[in-house]
Write a structure and sequence with these properties.
Blueprint (H helix, E strand, L loop, with lengths): L1 H7 L1 E2 L5 E2 L1 E4 L6 E3 L3 E2 L10 H27 L2 E3 L6 E3 L3 E4 L4 E2 H6 L4 E3 L3
Antiparallel strand pairs: 1-3, 2-5, 3-4, 6-7, 8-9, 8-10
Length: about 120
């Protein structure tokens, strides 16, 4: 699931903040991760060497923020076992036989309640 989430994360980061999003493949709504500030955002890199250092720090912090976003998204998204799409909790139903996305449950005439209303 972690690899699936990572492959769906879209980078919305700026030079000042790290942020990622995922789009539900059923309803199309976007979820945005918590914004994490870049530790050196307010410090100007006056020399080329310092800029290279800040770029490396930025990439390291961005990678950590992406991992944190993936962990955050794990609590809000599920993969449908039938269609294999990544769906938000509002579109993922707890059904009697097997938990499914809203569309697959409807097609199979399974009733259920969303994980999150």
């Amino acid at each position: 699931m972690t690899n699936l989430l990572s492959s769906h994360l879209e980078d919305r980061s700026t030079p000042q903040y790290f942020c990622f999003s995922i789009r539900c493949e059923v309803c199309g709504e976007f979820w945005y991760s918590s914004s994490i500030p870049f530790s050196k955002a307010l410090q100007a890199a006056e020399h080329r060497e310092k800029k290279e250092l800040y770029d490396a720090i930025y990439q390291r912090e961005k990678q950590r923020a992406m991992q944190a976003a993936g962990q955050e998204a794990r609590e809000l998204f599920s993969q449908c076992p039938i269609c294999r799409r990544l769906v938000c909790d509002a579109c993922f139903l707890i059904c009697d036989e097997m938990d499914l996305c809203r569309e697959c449950a409807g097609r199979m005439e399974e009733s259920g309640e969303p994980v999150a209303p």
